[in-house]
Structure formats: C-alpha cells, structure tokens
Amino acid sequence: MRKVAIVSVAQSDHRRAVPELNEVEMVQPVIQAALEKVGAGIADIDFTCSGSSDYLAGQAFSFVMTLDALGAWPPIAESHVEMDGAWALYEAWLKIQAGHAQTALVYGYSKASPGDLPTGAESAARSLLLLAVVARLDRDGGVAGPGDDRLRRHHRDRDGADRTPQPDRGAGEPHAQLKGSAPVEELLACEYICDPLRRHDCAPITDGAVAVVLAADEPAREWVDRPAWLTGIDHRVDSHNFGARDITSAPSVALAARNAGVHDGPLQVAELCAPFTHQEMILRNELSLGEEVQVNPSGGALAANPIMGAGLIRLGEVADRIMSGEVDRGVAHATSGHLLQQNLLAVMEGDR
Amino acid sequence: MGANRVAVVGVGQTKYAAVRGDVSLPGLLREAVFRALQDAHMTIDDIDAIVVGKAPDFFEGIMMPETYLADALGAVGKPLFRVHTAGSVGGSTAIVAASHVQSGVHERVLTVAWEQQSVSEAMWALSFPIPFQQQLVAGAGGYFAPFIREYIRRSGAPDDIGILVALKDRLNALKNPYAHLHETEITYDSIKESFMLWEPIRYSETCPSSDGAIAMVLAGEEAAEASAAASGVRPAWVHGTSMRSEPATASGRDQVSPLAGVQCAADVFAQAGITDPLAQIDVVEMYVPFSWYEPMWLENLGFAPEGEGWRMTESGRTSMSGDLPVNCSGGVLSTNPIGASGMIRFGEAAMQVREQAGDHQIDGVRTALGHAQGCRPVLRHVGPGIRQAVVVPTSAKSETPGRGFVITGIVTMVVAVLGVVIATTLLGGSVDLEGLSRDVVTEGASESEVPGRIGFRIIEDISSDEGDSMTVGVATGGPSGGLECRILDAGGDEVEVRAGSVNDSFVASGIRSDWEPVVVAEDLPAGSTWRRARLRGSPPGPLTTRGGARFQGGSGGDHRRHVRLPPTGLRDPRGRRRRWGDRADRSDPDDRGPGRRQPVAA
Hints:
The structure holds two protein chains of two kinds.
Chain A (H helix, E strand, L loop, with lengths): L3 E8 L11 H15 L9 E5 L2 H4 L9 H4 L7 E4 L3 H13 L5 E9 L16 H13 L8 H10 L1 H4 L20 H5 L3 E3 L2 E2 L8 E10 H7 L4 E10 L13 H10 L8 E3 L5 H11 L6 E2 L14 H14 L5 E8 L5 E8 L3
Parallel strand pairs in A: 2-3, 2-4, 9-10, 9-11
Antiparallel strand pairs in A: 1-7, 1-8, 4-7, 5-6, 8-12, 11-12
Chain B lengths: L5 E8 L11 H16 L8 E6 L25 E4 L5 H14 L5 E9 L5 H4 L13 H17 L5 H13 L14 H6 L2 E3 L2 E2 L8 E10 H11 L4 E11 L12 H14 L4 H4 L2 E3 L7 H8 L8 H6 L16 H4 L3 H16 L14 E8 L10 E9 L29 E4 L6 H10 L9 E5 L18 E2 L5 E6 L5 E2 L23 E4 L11 E3 L7 E2 L57
Helix pairs in contact in B: 2-13
C-alpha cells in the first residue's frame, strides 16, 4: 500500500438553512479554503471526487454544477459518488493507490433545508417514522433507549463542540450547528417527536459542506508538517431487511474495523457518524471502544449533519486533531442507510 | 509506481426493452449479474467488491437505491460502492471498478450499471422549468441540437449524415439480440420522414428510453488467468482509462468539440501506447445518443481531422465492414438505459476483444475503445458540465502496447435479418459520369478531396440471405429491380453481392477502403434514375454501365416523389440540399462562419 494522508480539511459553518446561497456558492469557499491551507490550486490536484445527492438538491445531475466551484478549466480528472463524501475519499484513495494520482481533492455537501427530511419526502429510508421504528426495535433489543444511562455519556459528548479544546482552530471557529446541551434530565422531560425519539435523539437538518485534500507520501510531507496518514480504510454493507438480521448489531462495522486495523494500535479519538442516538450505541458496541477513547469531540452528526458530508467531516475532524498534534491515532466512521447498514471506517495516525 | 493490471473476464447483459415489466429492479440487476458471473466462471462468493452505477435516482424514484440492493447483489459483508457521474456514469462506474483492482486492494470486482426508465419520464426529468433553464430546451435533445447545428455549419457536412448514422446503428442493432430496438423495416427514407424533434434531430435519430442492466466482472492478473483457464475465453485487458470533466461556465468552452473529450482521448491513448488511433484501434463503441454525435466524436477523439468526421461516416468507414467499425452493437441509438449506456459501450468493447459478440463480432479485434459521455442541462442560467470516460482494453498484455483488447465498449450489430443493407463502398470508377456530375457539383466536393473514389450510398432493400456483408453491395434498382451494381475488388474479381431491389431513393455506406472496386450496373431499365450517387474526384478506373443504363442527375426527375420534405428548411426550392454555412451564402469562401475556431490545443 502506498502511504496516503489527509493534509487539509475545511468545513462550512453548518446551519439549519443557508437560503441565500445555492450549492455552488456554498461549496466554493470551502474548497478554496481546503486548497489554500496547503497553498495549492486546482492545478496541483490530480483527481477530484465528490459526494452529494440529487434528491436533496431537487435536480437530476445536480453535482455537475459544482464543477463551477472548482475552476475546472482546463478540464480535470473528476468523479462523483451518490454517497457520503467519505466514499468519495475512498475512490480518491484507490486512485492514489493505483498510481493514477498523487494528490486528490474530495468534498461532500448538501442543502437539506429546502426539502422535508423528517417526513421522508426525499427518501422514505430517512423518514423519522422509520427511524423511530428502528430505534424502538433497538431499544427493545437491549441496545439503548431514551433514558438509558448510557445516553448520559452521549449527551455530555454532544455538547463537546464548545468545550473540547481545539487548539488548531481557535476558539472562535466552531463549525457545529448545535452547541451545548440542556441537562439530561431536562432533555428526557421533553415530549417525543416520534416515540421513542425526542428531538435530541435526532440529528439536526443542516446545510453545509466539507472539503479534504489527500496526498501521497511525498506531496503530503511537502505540504504539512504532520500529515494524518490513512493507515487503514474499509467499508462494508449489511442487509437492509428488517427481518434478515439482528438490527441491534452492525456486523459491517466490526468487519470494516478489522479490515481497517482499528485495534492495531491505541486509539485516542473516535468520530462516529450517528445521526440518531441509538445508532451511536450500536457503533460503540461494535467497535468496543475503551473508556480512554474520546468519542465525537466535534459533537458528531448530532451537532451538525449535512447529509452526504457528515461522514467525511468525521474523517476531517480526526485528521485535524492529528495534524494539530492533539492526538496520534484515531478512527473515523461514516454510514449510510436506515439500518446503519453501510459503514466505512478509516484509521489515521500521525508521525511520532 | 504503476497500477496493477486489470482485465474484463465476464460480461452479462439483460434484454433491453422499453418496459421490463417482468422483473423487479433487483431482478433486472440479477439477470445481468449472473450472466456476467457465468461468463467469468465465477460465483458471487468469488467476488471481493461490488461497484454500481446509475444516472439520477429520480428515474426510479428511489434515493440511493444501493442501500436496499445489498441482498440482491450478494453484497452483504462486502464493499458496495455507488458511482454517479451523470450520463457518463456507466463508463465511470467501470473505471472506478477497475481502480478497485488496479489499486491492488481487490482482486475480483463485480460492477453493475442500470436504468429502469419505464418508471419515469426521462425527457422531462432532464428538463427544468423556466426560468431555471434556457428557453425552448426540452429534454437532452433540446440541449444538444444547437451544438449539432453548429457542427454542421462549421464542417459543411451534408444534412443527411445523421440519417446515415441512425440507419447504420439501427441496422447493427438487428445483429445484437440484447438491443432494445429491432426495427427491421427501417430505411433511409423512414428515418428521413420521421418527425423532427429538435432540428436537425429527427425522432429516428434519437436514442430510445430503455430498461436494462449490464454487469461486468473485472479481475487482477492472477484471477483473470484463472478465469480464462476455466472459461476458455481470453481476458480483455484494460490498457487505459481516463475521465475528464469541464465546468458549465468556462469561457472558451467549445461544446461542439469539448476539450474534455480531446484530453480524455489523449490521456487514454497515451496510457495504452496508441499513437495512431485510426490504425491501432479495431473497433469503437462510442456514446452517440443523437445521430450526429458520431462524426462529432470521431473528430473529438482524434479519429478524423476537424471538420472531416462526417466523411468517415458517409463513406461507410464506420460501418461493420469499414476500417473503423463504430457501434456494432447498435449503440446508444438502439439501446439507452441511461445509467447503463456507458458501461454497455465498455462491455461491448470487451466482448469484441473476447470474440463474444456473436453476429456483430468484427473479425480479428485486438484493440477496442469504449467511450461514454454525459452532461447536464442547464440550471440557473448555467450550462452543463461535460464528463467523459474512455477505457481502452487490450488483449495482449502491456508488452505490446496498442495490440490488445480495450475494455470499453465496442459493439457490432447484426444486419442479417434485415432487408436493408447499408453498404458503403469507395468505388473507383470513371465512367460515365454524366448522371453523376451534377451531384458532384452539388455535394461541393473538391476535385482532390478523395481522389479516385466514388461513394455510393444505396438505400433500401438490398437484401441478402447471408448475413452481412461487407462488401458491399449490389444495388438493384429501378422500380422493377432492374439495376444491378457489382463491386469488383482490386484484383478485378467480383465481390459477392446480395440480390435485392433498390428504388431510386437511396444509397448506403460501408465499404472496404482497401478495395479499388468498380461498379457495374447492368440491365438498367431505360429511364432508371439514381436519386443520388456521389463522386469524389476523378476516378482512375472505369465505371461501366451495361444495358444502356443511365444515371440520372440527383437534381432531375421525380425521384423525390416519395420523399416528404422534413420541416427543416434544409432544402432549397430547387431541391438541392443546402447546408449550414454553404459557401454560396458567403462572400469569403474561406470564411466558414464567425463561430469557426482553431482547434484548442490539448
């Protein structure tokens, strides 16, 4: 395997709605920022790949528009996945492994605000009702549920966006849409929005974007002092059928974790993409994370959830912490599907 | 560090149709998947990763359908990857699948592309409401038509080149059992008389809307050799892949010949060691959703000089018997499940290399090229980006660059079933040009353009008992079938021709460029007329007629009596074909119009 690292990460300030900008306008500054952090231009990038959803954009082939945000002239080598940007990163990683590229730009974005996500207008698989059914099944299956003590830890994590030290960013630059949290007792006193889900169990609706620069060994060392080396990356899928498997587990997470070598070294941080609280419980179980592992210091998807970008943001958050020297080794997770059935895990390490 | 080698070792296609109501979406995919696995002599258990692709989710109304296909594709516990790059997605998906192997991460990869267009209305799904796009753009054809008009204006191409492409591809489709359209009755005139959708694109020059899927199995060196040993079919090695995108708003974009295509071809040819594409590539499957894109891509991809692509089409060089057969499968013009169309190009190219194309197989294919392209109509006053994907597979391994199989798609089509054969011949003849001379003039060919060759296009009703071929044909003509033309090869031997009848309305394409044939017309009834025969230059040898036949000039007589003029404004009152940019309309004969540009350097 060639050595490949994340060398730059940029995010938008995630918001409930960014009505004044279209996708291109929202993405462009983020791409620009990611490139500028390493002093690169689009001409320095060998391959570009993005993740987004036509359904959220409300237009067929919507992603083609963001070529305008790249300054892709003369034409560039470019691809797109209708998946979270984390999978776009996987494609770019393959291209570098194959020797077809030395550097890559990856981005993911969405504007979910114009649609009606909770009702499933865009996708039934994302409807609140369906997720509530799954959450109930998971709770009844013993995973976790509202009121579960394990959730208390989660709520502490959730407001970490404000409290976690972020020396690499400066205190004034939190990207999270939701910051802080009411006390657990107060949260649990709230009404269900769809039993057993309360509002705090669900990720917010977010408009936002994230961009990442990947580089092979040599350019990575040229660009940054401490690249976040991708030492392992793997993704797997489980059945989507309710009746086909035990949905209180996610075998694909454990499998991908083994293939990515998550436990081949000590973990300090884990960024898990769990837009619903019961999913985080499943992930924690599958990954067997120890108490020493800091989970979702960024606040996770529950603090900001630009669909198609939330997974790539997790990778970016871990990479940022490694590049800043805050941690040496961490794991990031991205997911897709109502049954948490498609999962990607990436392990990153810094030079010591 | 070079990439690992990758080959296509299995191709499976569904029967394509307007509506595949007999299967569910997962069922449709499995039809292709298991044919591909069978071809590769593998089972789903042998597969390490699965890469799927399709065009907009809107077409089936399922957002991110891969999230519910894991079971159907046998993907549980494996990586499942979903690509979407607009119209080029089928090609891009194959390329991403190839990357899975070239990276050394996976050894055996299954890739599937599909579209089930029957559950939606593709044309309007790709049309956005005013004021979010240009006026008068309905569907992709409305978007592309202006670029085609500009191509015609720049190149001075005759106005019926698109008809020839459509006729060739639809006839080729007859040789492809999977093809959606099997139009056994199609003729030059039926295409010409089909209604105009987006000038100059007629109904019969437009891709259909299809349901269907294609799957391929890609393998690394070891797995490919094991598969070949089991199946007895040689692997189609991939010798190059490339993708290029250009943005909607770049100043200086040329949408007639996109720079992205030029660069993509240059890149893939460089990877494959191809320095003379026309000579080194045996067959091409290119993305031609609207007929005129064949000559346009021929130029864009480097098979013809700028402005000359239409001559290759017209002279039949892109027919199955030509020196660069294009879309032997029938192409996108005969089968178009959008998300699959790009991969079908690649799969058909691989089938040619693997000699699995059946009736549309070209003999001796060693290198094939597959090409896919897509773009997006306008939104918010912005034009589309263009995405291109090209793959070159070769049969030989890399030690002999350019001699091998290209993975991306070439297809051959079957002609045998039809009563119509399009034969293009380049005829050497001198002759009796009386009747032809006028056409020579009206075609505007300069005396030196193609010295010594006459291209006849024979329309209608050349039939044959045997399939094919190539060689061109006999045109039997006259209302009563009295005209017979034979083609003689360079040695003076008569090339076997098919019997048939030809009326005066047409001609065809497709010839062997290595011949120096002579056309013999005999038993022509007095008064027989050729609607048109085309002569380029001064033929060196005699073109003889027997039986007192007379070729009548293309502009005389009542030979157009069957032709309903299309509402294109392409004909002037004298019936002469008029072309955009006709020199007669200009004061400066060298000025081909304000839009004429020098080719952009790659």
